[in-house]
Design brief:
Number of domains: 2
Bound molecules: iron/sulfur cluster
Strand order of the largest sheet: 2-1-5-8
Oligomer: single chain
Number of strands: 8
């Protein structure tokens, strides 16, 4: 099955998560999953937005603060020192530099620059902070690069979120490597992700199929522009066990005539055991792949669903 998956996507990472001593206190926030596991299957590019914004190491702490001019990034002890414009400029520069080059961004949670969600927003002395902010860098970067999946290191401890993030990273990497004038490649991209999309419901697959249908060289640029935002948005949806079972049954339909009644019964029992949360997704997928090797099917062999990211990550053993 698909050898192209061995390509290592490039992922930008908050530099402190890789052990770089760039934090306000000259410390780091080394994250073992990022440094030990992710680094084996992806090219990691450390970035520290605060250092890029010219802040020294060590430095006074900064925070998001609610003001009459909206949420600003300011020094905690001296709110007159405002870094909002600098950080916005850094986010725009990095978006310009990294768009199309990286397929994901992993950031440090709760940081007023890098945090993805629930970052404290100060409302002044004696008033409890609101935990509803987005780090100033991530806010402006994601607005410029809406296709790039972004996750916090803490959320990557959740097996389902981790699996979903990596699936999107590898999918965007495949898209980034697709030549923009390749009509056949565009059609194949859609066809080879059919099962990944079906796992999010057949409506999304059909809507994306309508964008691809009848594409020509003349319409390719406009179809691609319509396709990829909807594709990435669709992949971001969490997939329930019920939806995975629908996909597994759909796959079984392709070669059930070739299987013995015992093999079919065994597969259906494994699907059911997965649905009841007694086994992880890897169990039915491995069994289906075993039967696929014995009964090859060109269409199924192209499906990234069976191997959305390198096996070394072993994520489906946990979801
Ligand atoms: S959280 Fe972001 S800005 Fe803060 S030290 Fe880490 S990389 Fe730098």
């Amino acid at each position: 099955m698909n050898s192209a998956l061995h390509h290592r996507p490039r992922i930008a990472v908050s530099a402190c998560l890789l052990g770089q001593r760039v934090r306000f206190d000259a410390g780091h926030k080394l994250d073992r999953f990022v440094s030990d596991t992710l680094s084996k299957v992806a090219e990691l590019e450390p970035i520290c937005p605060e250092v890029l914004a010219g802040m020294p190491i060590p430095r006074p702490t900064i925070q998001l603060r609610s003001t009459g001019q909206g949420v600003r990034l300011v020094q905690s002890k001296n709110p007159e020192v405002d870094h909002t414009e600098q950080m916005t400029a850094v986010a725009h520069e990095q978006a310009e530099r990294l768009d199309g080059r990286i397929a994901g961004l992993v950031v440090q949670r709760k940081s007023p620059s890098c945090g993805l969600e629930r970052v404290p927003v100060s409302r002044g002395k004696g008033v409890p902070a609101l935990r509803e902010g987005v780090g100033m860098f991530v806010k402006h970067f994601s607005a410029r690069c809406p296709l790039i999946p972004i996750e916090e290191e803490g959320r990557l401890n959740d097996p389902v979120l981790r699996e979903n993030f990596l699936e999107r990273v590898y999918a965007l990497d495949r898209w980034n490597r697709l030549p923009p004038d390749d009509v056949a490649g565009f059609i194949e991209f859609h066809a080879s992700h059919k099962l990944n999309l079906m796992a999010r419901g057949s409506d999304a697959y059909r809507a994306l199929g309508r964008i691809v249908a009848g594409v020509t060289r003349a319409t390719l640029a406009e179809r691609r522009a319509a396709y990829i935002p909807l594709y990435m948005q669709t992949l971001a949806e969490r997939v329930s066990r019920k939806r995975h079972v629908n996909v597994l049954q759909h796959v079984l339909g392709y070669f059930k005539k070739a299987l013995s009644p015992e093999d079919k019964a065994e597969l259906l029992a494994v699907f059911e055991s997965y649905r009841r949360e007694e086994t992880p997704l890897s169990t039915p997928v491995v069994l289906l792949k075993h039967h696929l090797r014995r009964h090859p099917n060109a269409y199924l062999n192209r499906q990234h669903y069976f191997r959305p990211y390198p096996d070394a990550l072993a994520l489906r053993a946990q979801v």
